[in-house]
Amino acid sequence: MPTNSDTSPLNQIMTLAREIVDDCPSCAGKASQIAMWAREIRERRPSRQELEALVDATCKGSVPDDQRKLLIEGLRALVRFAE
């Protein structure tokens, strides 16, 4: 996915979610969950606990603890700099 510095990260996430649905229909459920969270981030800033719940719900224990922590911190950074 090409990046455009004029496009917000949330718009890029929404675009990526649509591309996932188009390219991998079996991943549509996860992509729609990503899109739902991107919309909610745009509307309000989720708490750390909500971001942890998102990671746990989407990864279902398949991510090692160190990567889980990095993913949560990355999401927190995204939330801070979102539109």
Give a quick precis of the structure.
With 83 residues, the protein is an all-alpha fold.
What is the domain total for the residues?
Answer: 1
Helical region count? Answer: 4
Query: What level of helicity do the residues show?
Result: over 70%
Dominant shape: globular
Question: Beta-strand percentage?
Answer: under 5%
Query: How do the SSEs run, as a string of H and E?
Result: HHHH
Mean pLDDT: 80
Task: Give me the count of strands.
Answer: 0
**Low-confidence parts:** 1-6
Radius of gyration: 13 Å
Taking the alpha carbons of the first and last residues, their distance comes to 20 Å
Sheet of most strands: none
Quickly give the structural class: mainly alpha
